[in-house]
Design a protein that fits this description.
It is a single chain. The protein has a 7-stranded parallel beta sheet, with helices on both faces. Strands 8-10-12 form a 3-stranded mixed beta sheet. By secondary structure, the protein is of the alpha/beta class.
Length: 301
Amino acid sequence: MRYFITGGSGWIGSAVTRELLGTGHEVVGLARSEVSAVRLADLGAVPVRGELTDLDTLAGAAREADGVIHLGFVHDFTDFATSIAIDRAAITALGEAMSGSGRPLLIASGFAGLAPGSIATEETPADPAVAGPRAETARIAEQFGGRGVRVIFVRFAPTVHGMGDHGFISAIAHTARQRGVSAYIADGAHRWGAVHRDDAARLVRLAAERPELATVAHASGEEGVPTRLIAEALGERLGVPTVSIERRDADEHFGWMGRFFGGDLAGSSALTRERFGWEPAGPTLLEDIAAGAYDVPVAAA
């Protein structure tokens, strides 16, 4: 099959592109720059130059594909409202172009914040009042399920880890190096779901191939790793002491990461494993930390 993918040269997207190509599919990828175009071509995909704001380009590529995998997102926390608006417009353009086709539209999401203090499952609703504006985006996307599009939300764990990760755990490791201590907040009992990048990519491919099996899939290899254990593993690997800090000091210590690292962001993938026959096989988060995945800063793609 021929898949159109946004974000196909990014951290998760490049693994998804490799997974699709490695299992016999064709991939056309949106490339926002010449660098992204070269990365996609090197992987074996066909690059199409454009931004997420180029709605005609998105629609045209979607119409020519057997399925669409929307992983791209503008991660600008200084103007998150604009990022959300761009995402909603892109999803609407993709959905409109695919209406009546019966083809799959996979949309990247996350389970962080869906069930504070509990464990999010595939059946946990995306309530905007609890989970914020990206949950409202999911409501907008769901309308295309009634218009002949197989919409599947792949909810990723807060950390999609592996060698070269430049996400949340990389930011926490950077703070540990900068501050000379590896910190966790309060008792560090709050949990973070985690999944290895290769496992996440395999799940995306399985969901794209069998969209009739579910409308929500959880990419969670580990239901929840206590943040104290994450901090201890980073401290041991980086050679700095591990300390607890008060919640009131989290923003000062971690900066923008404080609000995330203090959250309980656990998520189950039991139904996903049953429905798709998906079994995570990659290293755990603590194993990746111990293997040196976060020894040095990694620039974002």
